[in-house]
């Protein structure tokens, strides 16, 4: 690959360097194969949108801890708040002795999530836990058992969340049997709509299928909730239309089904609004949140209509570490950052810059079949040729590897593992973003066929 001028990327060794190689050997001896790793390096320091490994190599981060670092690595306000909290108390368990940050964060999320109805919020540790508990609450409130998720959806790796997830390898293979009363519906994928259907025709057909589904698979009056990502994350950054999301909400209202918005990856500014559901003018009944909520601290939340959230009796939901003081303090500071003037504007500017370059890549390279995104949640889809749209998983893996070898951390996604997704911290500077995109373009130029 032709060298490009770099200011922020500093590579002192090959990747992985000797110290990372030494740690990789220890990791292989002591850690099971199951937890996968995108980049074969070990971090020593992280700040903003930059990662420095133990060999002294500095990377631009386009992965953001799989969308957990919208506020950037080690935001100073969050770090200082955490240090102050450590001097007071680390953990008492909210179920034993309560603490103010838990209530303060609940109050804040009730205020900023979509809808002006009365809401309540409680906290857990991970996105999967939030999904599991949202389902528990929906079942308790409705007295129904069935849950509908969508093809290509990702909701976590625990049993119920894995059952709702729609990708066999690596998430579900040989891990069954799965949780009962979980069903999957079609989610529009406009780039791959059959028969070259228009987005409008695709939406109409997918929404029509619900009626057949309620006849063939599960009765509507047995369905407690439909859970959907406002933009599919692991599924390939597939963005639905407002018509589709509104149509799903209408079906829910028609049959008394709750709508759960899984905003674990889309929330907290990623799509240019605080929550992605705001793009569709749809108010869900329950919202699950995690990832960028705590700037890297493990915390998740379920927020919903007060009467729904009050359905479980005392002790029926919760957990020892749910809503830890450190997580709550971090989340309060993250929200404070994101509510400042200009934060979401910058997120939209980041997204505009990425998508314009991605559209250019689509014109430049024969294997870039599609460019899409919402706000700063952007992706390109790699194919073997634009006519057949056959997924190009092998090329995608080579691009990811070539990127980190040249100082850019990116991740793949998609049902076919043929999508390059960008989840860079939203605090990334214009110069860092440009440099990262230049590296990606240089890698594509090296590995792809130019369009003629």
Automatic annotation (TrEMBL):
CC cofactor: pyridoxal 5'-phosphate
Catalytic reaction list: (S)-3-amino-2-methylpropanoate + 2-oxoglutarate = 2-methyl-3-oxopropanoate + L-glutamate; 4-aminobutanoate + 2-oxoglutarate = succinate semialdehyde + L-glutamate
Gene Ontology biological process terms in this record: gamma-aminobutyric acid metabolic process
Keywords: Aminotransferase, Pyridoxal phosphate, Transferase
Xref: Pfam families: Aminotran_3 (PF00202)
Involved pathway(s): Amino-acid degradation; 4-aminobutanoate degradation
One of the record's GO molecular function terms: 4-aminobutyrate:2-oxoglutarate transaminase activity
SUPFAM superfamilies linked: PLP-dependent transferases (SSF53383)
The enzyme's E.C. designation: 2.6.1.19, 2.6.1.22
Similarity field: Belongs to the class-III pyridoxal-phosphate-dependent aminotransferase family.
Record-given protein name: (S)-3-amino-2-methylpropionate transaminase
The organism of origin for this protein: Brevibacillus nitrificans
